[in-house]
Amino acid sequence: xxxxxxxxxxxxxxxxxxxxxxxxxxxxxxxxxxxxxxxxxxxxxxxxxxxxxxxxxxxxxxxxxxxxxxxxxxxxxxxxxxxxxxxxxxxxxxxxxxxxxxxxxxxxxxxxxxxxxxxxxxxxxxxxxxxxxxxxxxxxxxxxxxxxxxxxxxxxxxxxxxxxxxxxxxxxxxxxxxxxxxxxxxxxxxxxxxx
Length: 195
Description:
Radius of gyration: 29 Å
Distance between the termini: 58 Å
Number of domains: 1
Number of helices: 7
Strand order of the largest sheet: 1-2
Shape: elongated
């Protein structure tokens, strides 16, 4: 249990912006739930913790992607609203090239654009921005779903194996093997005396 107590797994699972202490607490709660004995059970509990933590991260990324897209739309709207209160005039009359026709409306729209731009920079969106940039304008949500599926499969595989091992231990038996040999040759013919 030493590796489980010293936070070694957290070093490899927790990414920037996540709290290693929160992960350790989460993992400890799983240890308390399953009370693993031996290295095999310990590995399975650690596998569950890692998969569950990564699945939680996926949900945050997905929420962040939608938030980022929503803020991008809001920023575009705020900028358009700002431009609505500006009127281009001849550069020789107004050197700045812009005439503000409604100072209050312009100030309100500018403040909204600045606030939305600030919200887009928040740390909570950092993972989402990184993921979105990584997929380079592809369909981030479907790629995220494809990323989620094998993690979830691994989680359930570890959970079922842990449940099988724990049940066998509670019954005082060695766990039965679940490995199965599979062939694709079909049924073999019984050997004849001519062979």
